[in-house]
Amino acid sequence: MAKKVKLREIAWARSGDKGDRSNVGVMAKSPEAYEIIKKALTPEALKAHYKGWVKGEVQIYRMDNLMSLELVLNNGLGGGATRTLRFDQTGKSMGNGLINYFMVEVPDNFKV
User: Which one of 12, 22, 102, 111 has the fewest CB atoms closer than 10 angstroms to its CB?
Assistant: First the structure.
């Protein structure tokens, strides 16, 4: 059997901006968690999660030696820090929004 948990149960995140790109680093809490996040965090799933906020391509870079993913959300900040009307101009909340609201499926016996 499997259960769903918030991503924050198995990973940490930190995010920021590079112009109109939001970059989110997701770091797994264990090797087992890393396997789960690699499967769950796809470009399609991330576009759906952020709904209409991310207008461009989503790129995912794996850093296996760090059990981490670097997510690049192109055209994800409404024009960038000096142009956007969003409250979070520099994308600092994008990582928290991901780990606090994105649900992942884990085995019933999964332990972090």
Answer: 111
